[in-house]
Each structure stands twice: as structure tokens, then as C-alpha cells.
């Protein structure tokens, strides 16, 4: 690292270069003191160069200039490195790693405190079936979910209660009687208005 020539760390150079390429579409206009207005596509941003602040929020958050701030720096013909936080510079990196890491001996050389062995905490099994599916967070890509659609014979009454009619209808005499009986049990009473509507719909469907 000491032989490295750049003032900023290599990773930071790469990130700033990415922003510099985007800044080609930014057009900065000087306003008052250190304030600039930057037009970027169909949007406008305000940059406070001395405060390292941009209305897009990136400059003050990441510690190096965003594409809007870079266009202002280019307009003023100033150095980009002056607007990058010191922690991203080579000097800071060398300072952090200047001190070595002290060697540590193994467990056999530990001093006995005389307080005994500390046991791990008791695992308490919570009630209910343990979850096997991982709980997804907001960043996970959602998979396809099955949406159950009602068959065309299902209907809603005035109260909003859905009467579910199974799609499988006894179309042949080979159907076992028990299945037909089960289907009849799901139908509303024959003298009801809903039953008449169902019959009418079935006739229209199979006409
Ligand atoms: Zn910005």
C-alpha cells in the first residue's frame, strides 16, 4: 500500500469515477456563495459545496461527492480530493494499519479465575410448530404466489357472503354416488332464489 501512488484508496477512486461518468449529464449553475443549482435530466438539485451537502442526500451520507457535486467541482475547477472525507484517503489507511496486531496465546495458557465454568443458557422450546420457511424481508424478491380464483358458479349475496360451488360437476354416470351426494350437500335449497340463479347460469353456460 505504501507504494500505491494515488491519494485515495483504489476502491474509492472507482466509485468516484462512476459518479464522474454520470455527472456528464449534470449541468451546474452557480447561485449564491457556495450554492449551486444542478439540472440532472428532468430534475433539479441544490448543492452546498462547503458543507458537503446535496439535496439528493448522497453527498452528506457517503462522504464523497455525488454526480451533482462533481459537476459543481468541475465548474469551479477545484480538486475532487478536497471534498472526500479523510477516512477514504491513503494516509488514513496507513495510519489504521500502522500498528501491528499483538499475538495471543492459546486457551491452555489462560489464568484460572476460580469462579468455575460458565454453562450455556438453557434453551427454552417455545409452544407451536417451529417455522421452517424463512421470514422474508422487504428486499427479498417475491416469488409467484398462488391466487385461488372462484369458479364461475360462485356467487355473493347482499351481505357479501360467498357461496362456493366446486368446479367439478358430475358430468358422467361413472362418478361415484358418494361424490354426487357430497356435491348436492354444498348446493343451496332447491326452493331458494340462489338455487334458481345457479340453475339459470348453468343452463346459459352449457347452452
Ligand atoms: Zn447529489
UniProtKB/TrEMBL annotation:
<dbReference type="InterPro" id="IPR007527">
    <property type="entry name" value="Znf_SWIM"/>
</dbReference>
<dbReference type="Pfam" id="PF04434">
    <property type="entry name" value="SWIM"/>
</dbReference>
<dbReference type="InterPro" id="IPR006564">
    <property type="entry name" value="Znf_PMZ"/>
</dbReference>
<keyword id="KW-0862">Zinc</keyword>
<feature type="domain" description="SWIM-type">
    <location>
        <begin position="36"/>
        <end position="77"/>
    </location>
</feature>
<keyword id="KW-0863">Zinc-finger</keyword>
<keyword id="KW-0479">Metal-binding</keyword>
<protein>
    <recommendedName>
        <fullName>SWIM-type domain-containing protein</fullName>
    </recommendedName>
</protein>
<dbReference type="GO" id="GO:0008270">
    <property type="term" value="F:zinc ion binding"/>
</dbReference>
